[in-house]
Amino acid sequence: MGTRAIKQKVLKALQQDDLVRIETELAHLQEKELINALFSGICHSDERIRWHAISIMGSAVARLTEQDMEEARIILRRMLWSLNDESGGIGWGAPESMAEIMCCHEGLADEYIHMLISYMRPDGEEEWQDGNFLEHEILQQGLLWAMGRLAQCRKEHLLARQAERDLPPYLDAEDAVVCGLAARAIGLLGATDTLDIVTVQERLQGLAKNDQRTIKLYEQGTFRVVAVAELAGQALKALQEVR
């Protein structure tokens, strides 16, 4: 089967609703062939195709590590490069895909999670200012979703690098998706000694009371519509339980 035919087959499969069925249908493809086709999916305009491609990318790259770890690293570096201004690309779907890959393979999380965190941090003249802050709202949406996903599967990796300190500023974002996903990630990570808990709780309380904007949230194969207020309320509850 040629490259074009494989791409068409993969994109058609990704249109289905059942993620398990999609994985089964694509299981016969070689990992490299599948991954190359998935790169067209993770930036697709159809949200079902895009999110299913992101999910499948995680397991596909994890399987690739069993054959060739360096090839898997190249995939991660390709995604990182797509987020670089010099690449000429846009990087749609890259943060989310990287998070799924890291959830599926701890070794790659060990090596690359610090790079994903760096996209929440500014660059500057000070030694600690070694970030690669993403300014585009769409990329911020993907990055904040990635932080929430990693908080579910690699929480200790994030906390070890104090990623929770980078999340609160996003609560003031004008974009509802960025704001809501930041609240979700904060709740999933919980309270820590490095978090300004009083300030964060005050901001979350305001969102929980007043922000009725809704966003569509993708979680492991399914979509649901949720209000920013609900996500903020859940985060508040999580912070209070930890304390």
UniProtKB/TrEMBL annotation:
Gene3D superfamilies listed in its UniProt record: Leucine-rich Repeat Variant
Domain of life: Bacteria
Signal peptide start and end residues: none
UniProt-recorded name of the protein: DVU0298 family protein
